């Protein structure tokens, strides 16, 4: 059984280690070769004369901000187009510890450091997880308007031009040609409501424009299944906020979601209460009401200050790269099943894509081609496919019925499970675990599932 364990970290920085998997997920993914067989063709793309490579990044969330910063630092002429510079992306805002280190995030943009997590079963059995955390370890809780603005500002400091504009469409050059992409957008200046229609020519485009990506449509990237996630930000009395100061809650059960979980995540002066579903989207408000009901004692007297909803992609799009256009983040479909996590993968994919462009263009001095962008896909898939796969399996096994969820919560009480779960979340690494502990875990899991099955049989007898 594959299991999850700690990456090699010194302080908050990861020490380079080889990719842990050589299989690729389905879709248009490039074949994955072991690193030692890497073959590089001699660079044939032409040198650019008198100018640097021009890249437009569409969308200024974590994917776009991280991409624009890496491009600008690498000598590429970079433009980032974001339709709403004060965008408040509907999001729980939970980020893993490794993101704080890898993206040099200042601690003052992190609202809360969560060190305790309560996993709450359908019958309201609560298991405390987090006991295995080391003193410096935590889950970061951010407000997206703060994180996104920080990453965009840093891209701007590195030399990227930030445009407050709405990407409309683009004309693509003939496939394989070296002609420019023509981008059409509406620029908002000085708060003008209507904005001004503008165009620009670039050599490559990164689509970081989220789940409803227009860049993805422009390259016929195909659709993905998606969940709808609903969230209310609730300002609760100070005394109640004290309870959540370093604690997050996850609720599982048919009432809160047939295929996902409900959450209460702490922010600076409020909590975010939400849930999601792929299979029963039209009933999302009922699930949200149930989540609120389950947490009622702890959020009583609270005032809803914001209501928000947004799609969450379920898997990568069939196509993520075409010629000199690449998709990153939610536009590509990089959210994990089971946990619904996408911020870290958005920022990492944005950065990896930008680094592939910088490398392929030899710091912005040469034209790039599709092969350069495919090196990003290969690296991303090699690094993260095991994480996606494990979480996919967990969701299929444990989120399918209330008895299975009871078993899941029961399993979470096990320290080995807690360590594996937290380590894999905090450090984003899946590696073979301790065989003896894995065996114990397998036996316990089967035991839990057998009990869950027996419970389900008893329940179905009662309801016949
Ligand atoms: C309710 C909810 C809770 C979530 N909770 C978590 C969580 O706790 N932790 C976690 O890791 N993930 C969470 N996620 C997932 C996470 O929000 C996404 O995976 C992440 O935001 C993806 O980042 P991105 O940069 O790819 O896209 P986005 O964050 O969606 O950013 C896209 C940007 O593009 C801009 N844009 C879009 N179209 C255009 C256009 N035409 N022109 C110009 N700009 C455009 C948008 O304004 C936006 O700023 C949650 C999602 C939801 C919906």
Automatic annotation (TrEMBL):
Catalytic activity: phytyl diphosphate + 3 NADP(+) = geranylgeranyl diphosphate + 3 NADPH + 3 H(+)
Pathway entry: Cofactor biosynthesis; tocopherol biosynthesis; Porphyrin-containing compound metabolism; chlorophyll biosynthesis
All copies of domain FAD-binding, residue ranges: 54-84
Molecular function terms from GO: FAD binding; geranylgeranyl diphosphate reductase activity; geranylgeranyl reductase activity
Keywords: Chlorophyll biosynthesis, NADP, Oxidoreductase, Photosynthesis
Function: Catalyzes the reduction of geranylgeranyl diphosphate to phytyl diphosphate, providing phytol for both tocopherol and chlorophyll synthesis.
Protein species of origin: Iris pallida (Sweet iris)
Recorded family membership: Belongs to the geranylgeranyl reductase family. ChlP subfamily.
Protein name: Geranylgeranyl diphosphate reductase, chloroplastic
Transmembrane segments: none
Cited PANTHER family: GERANYLGERANYL DIPHOSPHATE REDUCTASE, GERANYLGERANYL DIPHOSPHATE REDUCTASE, CHLOROPLASTIC
Domain of life: Eukaryota
GO cellular component labels: chloroplast thylakoid membrane
EC number assigned by the record: 1.3.1.83
InterPro entries xrefs: BchP_ChlP_pln/prok, FAD-bd, FAD/NAD-bd_sf, Geranylgeranyl_Rdtase_fam, Geranylgeranyl_Rdtase_pln/cyn, Geranylgeranyl_reductase
GO biological processes: chlorophyll biosynthetic process; photosynthesis
